[in-house]
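I'll show a record.
***
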Amino acid sequence: MNDEHPLAWDESTRPSLAEAADTAYPPDQEAFHGHLVQIHDHLRAELTRLHDLVEEVRRGVLTAGDARAAVHAMSLRQNNWTLGAYCQSYCGFVNGHHTLEDTSVFPHLRRAEPAAAPVLDRLAQEHVVIHELLDDVDRVLVALVREADEGALDEVERALRALGEKLLSHLAYEERELRGPLARHGFY
């Protein structure tokens, strides 16, 4: 694992808007947060599928090529799929989601609710770390395709575990902290 990015984020260093989780918003306002959670749930499901594929390769149920074909068929697939970018669809979707947040949603929320700035800054910083972990996953997946050995598979599992720990924590933090700002101000 990259020593710069321990698996768990220290919750005590994360800013919070300290909004009560039971704060009520009308359904039309809750819909913005609901949409964010739907996108995040899709990311969670695809991450679980990636872990399952690695396990199937380890057990000999799938070859690396079969796993590649399964990833290729995932709903997040992009048209520029290549052998050297084994998980490009997942990584690309996460990167695209974060780019949209960083360039559009976060600036909108920052203008509409300046008190949210520390949380938005932290979320943007976490995006950078997650992108580095996505690059690591891509690197080790390319090595797996080239080497197809047990050591390469161990590295894929390690990289996916590190990504999963950070990404899942990030998604939960974002959902918790942005519920109120999204209900009050929407995405744009």
In short: The mean pLDDT is 81.
